[in-house]
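G., the chain you wanted modeled:
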Amino acid sequence: MKIKVCGMRQKNNIEQLVRLNPDYIGFIFYPQSKRYIGDQISEDILNLIPVNIMKVGVFVDEPLDLLLEKYRINSLDMIQLHGSEVPDYCSELKKIGIPVIKAFKFADDFDFHSIKAYESCCDFFLFDTAGQSVGGTGIKFDWQLINQYMGNKPFFLSGGIGSSDLEAVRNISHIHLYGVDVNSGFETAPAMKDILKVSAFINELRTNS
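Predicted structure as tokens:
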């Protein structure tokens, strides 16, 4: 089970998180997010992150040329698309060798056929909760909906995951569940993670996965 910790911004907090060795760290490049990192991550922060931890840039309907520039100047390893990006947009990134995570927002009436066109142009999917605004909601959706996913693309589970969800995450048996994406459920304030809670969650999940 891979672990992605998203919405990081504070240097000291990131330094503590790196010691826990998550698989992915997410930085949000969407200006309307409370966890917006800005256009450029400081060198001090980038130097904290070892090569084995993937740096994921989270974007929402960003013009492609601007996204590519931010991907370059921030030495990102992957891109997560959290808006209404079409398959052709994802394909442009794939063509130049940029790994892509495409987020989809689940509600009870989610159309699973709508994501079929993304399978050839994305490396991973991320299943989150539908809400009134773009970006994450910090709210869980009905995880039983995952059983309706019949595609072959590995996916991250997201949406309000917290310490109390550990057993429920373990009980998900879908063959393509690749990892969990955690954010607001472990925060003391926007972009500030409770490292003790994150550490306990990571240790328990890895010990029993």
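DSSP finds six helices and ten strands in the chain.

Shout if anything looks off.
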